[in-house]
Amino acid sequence: MKGNLFFRIASILLVLFALGHTLGFRKIAPEWGVDSLLASLRQVHFNAQGFDRTYYDFYEGFGFFVSVFLLFAALLAWQLGGLSKEVLARIPLITWSLAVCFFAITLLSWKYFFAIPVAFSALITICFLLAAWFTRSSA
Asked: Where are the domains of the chain?
């Protein structure tokens, strides 16, 4: 049961992470002094394979991609949390891949972002590591 609980905890943390990311990634604090840069990113249009786009469109698009993938990971973790230890022991590539993936996300968050995404990604990594450990095959 321990592994299942850690998958469920990771799922809840992932939903909160996705919510925070979605609500926060487009918020810009005035003290950052990037207003003119952002205006430029929004105003300069170019053709990208037949579509009129700006770099800010790309920024927003990739930000929403991240939110969608965080929600997918939450759904996957929730589903894994409902499986038996025997089933989970037969799919170690999935369980350990989630742990490795979120370890990489923790490192990227440490290098490029700030405390909140570092904390969320680290806690999610720990949950996935514990879940994978507790559901591993004993054979």
From this structure: 2-28+68-134
- DSSP per residue over 67-113, as a string? HHHHHHHHHHHHHHHTS-HHHHHT-HHHHHHHHHHHHHHHHHHHHHS
Reference 92, options 137, 138, 139; nearest CA is: 137
Backbone Cα Rg of the chain: 18
pLDDT tens for 35-86 read 999 999 999 999 999 999 999 999 999 999 999 999 999 999 999 999 999 9
Question: Within 10 Å of residue 6's Cβ, how many Cβ atoms?
Answer: 24
Cα–Cα dist 80/130, whole Å: 13
pTM tops 0.85, yes or no: yes
